[in-house]
């Protein structure tokens, strides 16, 4: 893969992570080197238990490595103070999980404006306008006022994708984003993620067991026993 330093959004160097105590102790990640470029889509596949979610947690600044370095957009983030990590997480990383975690008592648009108002210097009107625009991008322009429980599973996942884009993050991390959807909805959601990454020049890293979807990314990493093959 050709890459330049300016295009590098995320880099890890020799990342290790051990979890558990005593006889349950597992050396989960054994020296992960990863380089992700702006505007590209990446997937990680590998057998259950090989360390995919553990890595995603570290990259999402929800956990810290025992050794190694993590750099996001040129800034070393694994060593940063917790308050700074929270700020970076809210501002520069978007998450899409298997279960959408939308706030069902709020409308689709409000589910997007809440993180914007928390992390961006933006007023309510502008946030709402941006929310409607993003929901339009994922094909939900006519359902912005619907509450979470008035949307289908596929629609909720699309709101989750729009929400992940809300703060214009450098990196979007997705853990089995299509895991609870049927084939048609999975494919549609995945195609949308791909198109958005390319159109908006955003980087997406997806962990999935769906090999068809994984192979559709610009690059697919194969993980085994805490290392890339
Ligand atoms: N808190 C913990 N304490 C001890 N071991 C843990 C802990 N969390 C995870 N593990 C172990 O770490 C290993 C990696 O787990 P991880 O969830 O990263 O795997 P995964 O590749 O995402 O698996 P899956 O595809 O099933 O989601 C597994 O062997 C798991 O049992």
Automatic annotation (TrEMBL):
MF terms in GO: ATP binding; ATP hydrolysis activity; transmembrane transporter activity
A Pfam family it matches: ABC_tran
GO cellular component: plasma membrane
Entry keyword annotation includes NAD: no
Keyword Transport: yes
Annotated keywords: ATP-binding, Nucleotide-binding, Transport
Highest taxon, organism lineage: Bacteria
PROSITE patterns given in the database record: ABC_TRANSPORTER_1, ABC_TRANSPORTER_2
Domain ABC transporter: 10-229
UniProt-listed CDD domains: ABC_MJ0796_LolCDE_FtsE
Signal sequence range: none
Family: Belongs to the ABC transporter superfamily.
This protein's name: ABC transporter ATP-binding protein
